[in-house]
Specification:
This protein has 322 residues and is of the alpha/beta class. It contains nine helices and 15 strands.
């Protein structure tokens, strides 16, 4: 992959030059370095990638840092990523981390979906706005085989699954789950806020939606990904839909079914992460840090950036807490 020009210089040269001039990197709260990176299979225009470096980062020091990769980079101001990092660093409650945020492609619903890496294809679902994830395979492959190596080559990263995490919200959360699930040799943790686990292969009626939800089917097929952990959060006021009439909104139901498994009255069932052997902590106390899967129900949470801003600090403390 060829990095596009940034301030008339190649991306790698800018990284070295800027850090050499400044000596130390910005602490959380300062603007990130931004680079347009080519992704021709995903978008005709380069994708904008923003890199947030932790306090004390400098080119002449040998320390390596974990990396958090985030979808929907264009939302980072709205969720106050810089301000949140700055506050957590001041409190000394998290370890330093490099954050790499990728702005959404021009067609967000086209790229942010599910993929079958083994088959080399997108797993497309339907919605009220049309197909979701038609190019999810292209985006996920670019992310894993182009973006991650580029970051590892130009920053002092911990280039192991344990050193890499993913984050996303809404459709970006669906894709973050997909990337972690399909590339466990690269990523050790996935964070998903308000994930779009409603995506289904057949939207004929409520029953068919329940039986053909795609993320739940991915988990059901397994196998478990050894060492892979998840932090999920969902709001109780994200919507009003309740397709199965059980008194629980679909956003909560869909996530709960992926974690806990699903069984219909007619005998249809899918295994969840718990049935695959993952340990699960639901609305946990701080003492539940060792669980493979953390599931947080945000009672008044809505499907918006204001709620995701509130979800961000506890996720960062869970992923990078001292």
């Amino acid at each position: 992959m060829r990095p596009s020009y940034f301030r008339r210089l190649r991306g790698p040269l800018v990284v070295l030059l800027m850090l050499a001039l400044h000596g130390t990197a910005h602490a959380g709260g300062a603007p990130p370095w931004t680079f347009p990176l080519d992704a021709p299979a995903v978008s005709p225009a380069p994708l904008r990638v923003s890199v947030y470096l932790p306090p004390g980062y400098a080119p002449h020091r040998g320390r390596r840092y974990p990396v958090l990769y985030a979808n929907d980079g264009q939302d980072m101001d709205a969720v106050d990523l810089s301000g949140t990092l700055a506050a957590l660093y001041r409190e000394r409650t998290i370890r330093p981390v490099i954050v790499v945020a990728v702005d959404m492609p021009a067609d967000r619903a086209d790229a942010y979906g599910l993929s079958d890496r083994a088959m080399g294809r997108s797993v497309v679902g339907g919605s009220r706005i049309g197909p979701i994830g038609s190019h999810a395979q292209d985006y996920s492959a670019w992310f894993a085989t182009q973006l991650v190596p580029w970051v590892d080559a130009h920053y002092r990263t911990q280039a192991t699954p344990r050193g890499r995490s993913l984050l996303g919200w809404s459709l970006g959360a669906l894709n973050a789950f997909n990337l972690a699930w399909e590339y466990p040799e690269l990523f050790g943790r996935g964070g998903a806020f308000s994930p779009s686990f409603w995506l289904a292969g057949d939207r004929t009626d409520a029953r068919r939606i329940q039986h053909t939800r795609l993320a739940q089917a991915m988990a059901d097929r397994g196998p478990p990904r050894k060492g892979l952990a998840f932090w999920f959060a969902v709001g109780g006021a994200e919507e009003s839909g309740d397709r199965d009439g059980e008194g629980v909104i679909d956003a909560v139901d869909d996530l709960d079914d992926l974690v806990e498994g699903y069984r219909d009255g007619d005998g249809f069932r899918t295994r969840g992460l718990r049935q695959l052997g993952y340990t699960v902590a639901i609305d946990p106390a701080p003492s539940a840090r060792r669980a493979d899967v953390t599931l947080v129900h945000w009672q008044d949470g809505q499907h918006n950036q204001a709620t995701w801003k509130r979800m961000l600090p506890p996720f960062l403390r869970r992923a990078y807490g001292r």
